[in-house]
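Quick log. Single chain, no ligands specified.
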Amino acid sequence: MHRLFSVMLAATALVCWAYVAEPARAQSRTAQEQLAVDIYKELVEINTVTETGDTARAAEAMAARLRSAGFSESDVQVFTPASRKGNLVARLRGTGARKPILLLAHLDVVEARREDWSVDPFKLIEKDGYFYGRGTADDKFMAAAFVANLIRYLQEGYKPDRDIIVALETDEEILDRDALGIQWLLKNHRDLIDAEFALNEGGPVGLKNGKPIRNSIQTSERVSLSYQLEVKNRGGHSSLPTKENAIYRLAEGLTRLSKFNFPFKLNATTRAYFERTAELEGEQVAADIRSVISGRPDPASLSFVRLSANPVYNAQLRTTCVATLLEGGHAYNALPQVARATVNCRIMPGEPVDEVKATLVRVLADDQIVVTQIGEPILSAPSALHEEIMGAVAKLSAEFWPGAPIVPTMSAGATDGSYLRNAGIPTYGHSGLAGDVDDVRVHGKDERVLVKSFFNGQEYLYRLVKMLSGGG
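-> predicted structure:
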């Protein structure tokens, strides 16, 4: 047993070294690795910002690569349900002995302004052991890996027991609000994407101080729902200010909201997540976790306060609502007639949506702040842990990240996996992409991915999909 522990420790140390080191891989890349980088670069450098970019162009570019690699026209299809909006569906045909597997990734990204970044967000830049660029992590890594691996399977003559379907969709970043992405595919071409189960974004490998501490598999998501907060006044000349000011009233309400925490709630997935996480954390954090998940924790306790101060853990503990957009007034020399804010909530599965709005109204504590729900929530039941998937993940993860436990997780955000789950296709967030748990830059400045993680993640997904697809 002691010898086994020593071997595992040495293997873990080797993996850790690999992540903190910065090898000069560019000169020693295989043809498959270079193809993946070329695809990655092409995707990142096509501006696919949801509101202003062109996902149709990105879909066509990936289709062109697949066709040039030998895929038939009938097995690579691009759909453009609206201007600049594109979805790609590609299929590697197997024997048909089993129902297909669906590999889902989204092409659109959130806005990134050049003046906010230290590099051009729409150029793939490799430096300091990282790939920088908008979408490098969310979600063009998975899109590039799926396309590169599909080409690799074809070139190898691989014949799986099931068809392998890759779907690259649009508008995920706005939860397919206009039904031009995954909803459009489900409604108009369900037959092309129907599958036994799907692998989707989410569920990364967590690194802490360079060490792999967990390999996550996401089975459920918090529900994303936004609200508009609005205050109206009669306005007037700024030289004659009054006590009634729309901006002040809205600001005071938002300040009250900023100090409020929704109640603590655990579900089966988050309880398992914290139980596993406690085994990996330092003494104090581990004690805090165990205190919070045991019995009836006191929200005012130091353990609860400390754990809630960590944004990642706080998002697993409760519903959250945060102000994300703000506007008010119409002229520098006029009293504001209208002030508005958008508050985005991420609601714990099973929590009644109506209660969230009622809580907002109560916390804002001002009947002049009108709260209006924006859109409808996408509710979905968690995907049951799949024995075959979990077995394959456990076996392969032990090779790539020895000693890192497999941890079921609930996504703090939301993906289009909810639509698939509601359509009867169990969906699992699992990327194989390793990143620092204390340096998450998705949707933020200087989004980046470790170069080592990119190649490891691509190879991991290549092998995982083969394990789940069988054949030869």
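Residues 1-24 have pLDDT under 50 and may be disordered.
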